[in-house]
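Key idea: predict the complex, not the pieces.
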Amino acid sequence: MRIGVFDSGIGGLTVLRELKARLGGHDLLYLGDTARIPYGTRSPQTVISYSLRVASYLVEQGIDALVIACNTATTHALPDLEAACEPLGIPVFGVVHPGVQAALQVHEEGQLALLGTEGTVLGGAYHRALAEAAPDQELIAVPCPLFVPLVEEGWLEGVVPTEVARRYLEPLQGRVDTAILGCTHYPLLREVIASVLPGVHLVDSARATAEAVLEALGPGEGTGSLRFMVTDGPERFADVGERFLGERPDPVEWVDVGQPTAAFSRPLPA
Amino acid sequence: MRIGVFDSGIGGLTVLRELKARLGGHDLLYLGDTARIPYGTRSPQTVISYSLRVASYLVEQGIDALVIACNTATTHALPDLEAACEPLGIPVFGVVHPGVQAALQVHEEGQLALLGTEGTVLGGAYHRALAEAAPDQELIAVPCPLFVPLVEEGWLEGVVPTEVARRYLEPLQGRVDTAILGCTHYPLLREVIASVLPGVHLVDSARATAEAVLEALGPGEGTGSLRFMVTDGPERFADVGERFLGERPDPVEWVDVGQPTAAFSRPLPA
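Result:
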């Protein structure tokens, strides 16, 4: 099968890495919408519009399944992507539900924490998924806007990331036993986050998402292939991407995702 | 006259503030391309394409002059914007030349420094402008990618911004007497930057640009008006914008800049 994986940029490579480890018999197409990154501070309507455009392009490439490897896009655009893809027989996987399930498995008692972008925290998808799975479970959601630029800059340890993490996360100390890393960039700051929240389970939804996709699609029977596409800056993507993927993404193609086909079009925000 | 002012987002409000103080007799239209912010890490072709689209929209609003209140857009797109606007009798003002002129006025000896986004530093427009104005003058350019997200987060003082500034700017200590704040966000970090570079002249191109526009167009004879438009997130723009403008931008309209007219179209990057 051909599996399309999309993210606003580079963070989704942490999901691709886990997918590749489990579903390497499939062809994996990764598309990073680097011309419109970051999604995390944009309005829901704009995130939906961008996500539909990217998904439309991947569907034109003949994908059999779609993985939304981005928490903000999953938060805002999952229903619209399902509505566009499922009539075509293309199942859609997001990162929110698997992350919530994984958190509930390790969580013992008290409140759960969600760390994410502004869009993910305010969008409420984690709250809704948790309300379905565990109606009485409380969730404290903390937006951490500087984590993404820190990771993109490659500052993963030392004074600055530790102080940033302390400022965002100190209010959680002693109040939570489990925190969901609700952004695909955050696993790269795992050690810094753990130093501020010692003893807290840190849940990475990349792994949980890959497990969910594996369960649905199986490991694949081919030899598998990897293809990397971006909407801007292939060189920069390859340079920064290595930290996320564990190997250099190469080659990286520039693509113009253009306008979405009719099934993927929605009115713009007004 | 009607003057169009554009930026990738919110930083250009520091330029608008200076324009308003000097050219308040004109009608000022501000357009922040918040659906595509940030420009600072994007490829030159993409910045050109976005800038032309925004300029095309402003021209349709009947502007008589265009101010590019963004260092990255000036760096990459000034020649294309001039080529599209000047045949229509619309003069174009960027922030790079005024910033260089202002720096040369206070600079005493040795090397000059430029602090900016990755796009501004690598784009070379400051180097070219300086080579024209003062051919033997050396310039050390330092990209400071975390300054913009820090300012947008409102962290303008304390441990984190000071440590970030120290990490970027310590190599300049004792080597420069003048530094150009080559990004419209950076004036909000002026005190932190000054604490790491004591005694160094910090040149803010917003003021220099407004002076250049005043000299060309005069102060205006009407009562003047202000209009704010963004391509995404009007509420967020109003909330964060107050720090930049010194007053709350209100009301803020959402606009769809759509496709540029023919004169403003360029092939996409390939």
